[in-house]
Amino acid sequence: MAPGEVAFVLGGGGHLGAHEVGMLRALLERGIVPDLVVGTSIGAINGAAVAADPTTAAVARLSEVWTRIERSDAFDGSIVGRLATLARTRTHLHDNHALRGLLEEALPVGRIEELAVRFECVAACVETASERWFTSGPLVDAVLASSAVPGILPPVEIDGQHFLDGGIVNSIPVGRAAALGAREIYVLHVGRVEQPLEPPRWPWEVGLVAFEIARRHRFFGDLAALADDIEVHVMPTGRASSPAGFSSLRFGDTSRIRDHISSAYEASLRYLNEEPRGER
Predict the structure, then answer these.
(1) What is the 3-state secondary structure (H, E, C) of the chain?
(2) What is the pLDDT at residue 66?
(3) Is 41 a catalytic residue?
(4) 193-225 as b/e, with b when 16 or more CB fall inside 10 Å?
(5) Does position 68 have pLDDT exceeding 90, yes or no?
(6) Which pLDDT score, from 0 to 100, does residue 85 have?
(7) pLDDT confidence of residue 276
(8) Does the structure show a pLDDT above 70 at 21?
(9) What is the pTM (predicted TM-score) of this model?
């Protein structure tokens, strides 16, 4: 990438990734189009869609996909179905067949290098305990690998190695965008970094809070390490600032998808109207 090019960085966060759709709509309506898209987990899904077609029409289609998820979910929502899958696999609650079908239907190309905009997504490699960036090859496989939430979805095998959710190693990859030459970075996230944390109250919250501390530490450290000449915009979600409890961290709550999209859209429009480009 040449200096001055624009990057969209899309972070992970399950159903809260609907906020990113509203941010994308606001950015594209303002004529801000990416030269590079990097994504993690749900950000890889949203990012692949905008990299395929960086237009407001494509975001409208993405919004419809999210609305379909709200109405039906891409997974078996029954407790019986989840327990049956867990009993069969012993490692995860859902298979990824429905999500694969949804992605194959929604994404218009088969390979990363065929996308209209340069795109990369990250996953955690089990065998090497490291982050793996997918820069070419089958698009749906790469996005599924980046989105394989541990315990929820199965690891994805690619070229003899197994991959889990990219959020484990790089939840909001601003450093990757800078390393690839971006000088104007728009950070699209799910809202967790805006919410103060509180100590866990129940055993099942301990791991979630610990993970949230780790992901925020990495993100803010990466932001602080960026060169002074890189312009960074952390887009707002429009959510009220309140302690981030278990309900905001859990996977699969799709009850407020349309609210997430609209609140992030309105907040992002306000931000873009108040923050001229060219100022960090």
Answers:
(1) CCCCCEEEEECCCHHHHHHHHHHHHHHHHCCCCCCEEEEECHHHHHHHHHHHCCCHHHHHHHHHHHHHHHHHCCCCCCHHHHHHHHHHHCCCCCCCHHHHHHHHHHCCCCEHHHCCCEEEEEEEECCCCEEEEECCCEHHHHHHHHCCCCCCCCCEEECCEEEECHHHCCCCCHHHHHHCCCCEEEEECCCHHHCCECCCCCHHHHHHHHHHHHHHHHHHHHHHHCCCCCEEEECCCCCCCCCECHHHHCCCCCCCHHHHHHHHHHHHHHHHHHCCCCCC
(2) 85
(3) yes
(4) bbbeeeeeeeeebeebbeebeebeebbeebbee
(5) no
(6) 54
(7) 64
(8) yes
(9) 0.88
- Which residue of the set 165, 171, 263, 268 is catalytic? 165
Catalytic residue (one of 35, 41, 222, 248): 41
Cβ atoms of residues 253 and 75 within 8 Å:
no
